[in-house]
Design brief:
Three copies of one chain form a homotrimer. Chain A is mainly α. Chain A is about 70% helix and about 0% strand. In chain A, helix 6 runs antiparallel to helix 7. At the B-C interface, helix 2, helix 3, helix 12 and helix 13 of B face helix 6, helix 7 and helix 9 of C.
Chain lengths: ~240, ~240, ~240
């Protein structure tokens, strides 16, 4: 079981086998062999959402193993760098900083050079002005008087900057965002981001598989609490 | 204060006394001397729910002290092993893996042998087919189309396998599950699991004491947010 | 960038720059230079809420840097000690213990003496009996039968002891409490504590800036989920 060997620093497959033989078996047979090979989501997508869930929950022990696994599954180094930046805003800068430590070691091990990473200032993707104006207007109407600073930063830093950086496709940004929301129990924010994800090219079948996968990484309850919201989004979209 | 000596690796009772004398006093007088001796829950039950709360929140620093305390309070080694497996599914595999590291050290210190731990495949308890079919049907009707993989795994891995493993009684599994739900703010999932716990032999008085105890381990707000749901369960059951 | 040098043990500014140049830039330009200097909240208040958010989320890696920053921004050592005590109750004793380790090192580095810290038993501020009786009656009516132990402890340990300790003003206790609630997604408990904060001298403009600041430390979603509750409190208070 070389895979569990790397599950966390100082934790070997023998430790898991010793403390709970059933946990060792489930990890190998159910998660690694079966879950990661289900066709409903690519292994690359599973890498994206697992990494996002770990960063969103500051699971530093598991990061080295899964950062490697994500890179081995088709996530690019530049994309992993950009996921950490993205989640600085969606999970908090301290979560991102905790991920930097793990990513640094993995990047060094693979001999990554600084020029392979997305620059501080990048050429931005073209903005859909109409959709963004509509989003900004609605949020300003709702919350402009409640927290003007947050509302302004959302426009300036997120939707007119972060989301337009080309190092991660809008579809992948949506996937990572949804994973972080489910991972941290933020069901209220799923409606907007799941609709955005489906608009950005995520299929409904892929979206359905995200909680199936994440249940093993963030626990069944976080995923079950997301289901009514996901169901509601799917049903409302059918009406159009 | 030998107990606070072990509160976390590298953290002595003198450190707590130095940084906050009031915190040292509350830990000793309010939590260790008074809370753990309240008769509404046995010390063994307090061990179960404290350990579950720490695993549910990945509080690795406090695990060694409380794993020892749980074992000293009547929780069996095989039960602690099984709690870690149970919470792999209810809190996430990374949480379980973080607990494995702490459990390994405690088990080694006590000279535990591998044959004292529950096997990977165990003879299962008898299933209540009627109740399980009813549960599965209801979940499938609600969410079968939203996330078919998660719904199927819930049946196959949780209710027709994990919950039937004999290393932990159904009542204790329910107690551990409820503690993890309160610890992580998952109030939506409490209704089903509290009813299941009361069906499985938890008394209402014991259920009432769970938030009293957990408030010290997961914070007052998580427990207060659980109270309306617990109240609702108690009241609905009176109607029958 | 000496500031990011201290962001976490073992993590240098060069590491952040290497893994994500954009994260290094945002940390310096957006968070340190701009956010911390916005006039809507003092740097001292930003120190209070950042420290509370980190303790509430057990972000131990970032604690040393921000404990220092809070002290450099006008938070007193005795206040930091008392915040840790306060959050033992509002975020859990394990979170407080994790903070003790970081605080001990910072206090030692600054040559703090034990007599500068709030004593275990302190002379209490005068209680507003009428307001407290009203609060206690309402909570007892709602939840006295659901969890009598928790309801009694809330009165005895929190509102007739902790909140009356003079080491932290009631206004600052409210600020710290609200920050911890937003940081851990406990929106249900914000209504009571925001009203209390506004009664205790927090201005509405300051309250509005708390989510603006915290978004960078606990992620946008936690703050956006708090906005409807904050809005509701603001609107209800206008009606009187």
């Amino acid at each position: 079981m070389p895979e569990t060997h790397l599950l966390a620093p100082g934790l070997t497959a023998e430790d898991v086998q010793f403390v709970s033989p059933a946990l060792a078996r489930s990890t190998k047979e159910v998660v690694m062999d079966r879950l990661w090979n289900r066709p409903e989501l690519s292994r690359r997508d599973r890498g994206l959402i697992t990494v996002a869930a770990l960063i969103g929950r500051s699971q530093t022990l598991a990061m080295p193993h899964y950062f490697e696994k994500a890179l081995d599954s088709g996530v690019k180094v530049s994309e992993l760098s950009e996921i950490i930046l993205h989640l600085a805003f969606y999970s908090g800068f301290p979560n991102a900083m905790a991920a930097v430590g793990a990513a640094r070691d993995v990047f060094h091990k693979r001999g990554i050079n600084a020029n392979e990473l997305p620059p501080a200032h990048d050429k931005l993707l073209q903005l859909n002005e109409e959709a963004e104006t509509q989003r900004a207007t609605q949020v300003a109407n709702n919350f402009g008087a409640v927290s003007p600073g947050l509302v302004q930063n959302t426009t300036d830093l997120l939707f007119r900057d972060l989301w337009l950086r080309p190092a991660l496709t809008p579809r992948d940004r949506s996937v990572v965002t949804i994973a972080a929301l489910i991972a941290s129990g933020q069901v209220q924010q799923i409606t907007y981001h799941l609709n955005r994800a489906l608009d950005n090219g995520l299929s409904q079948e892929q979206a359905s598989e995200i909680p199936t996968h994440l249940a093993f990484y963030v626990g069944w309850p976080n995923c079950f609490s997301a289901l009514p919201v996901i169901k509601d989004v799917f049903e409302k979209r059918k009406e159009y």
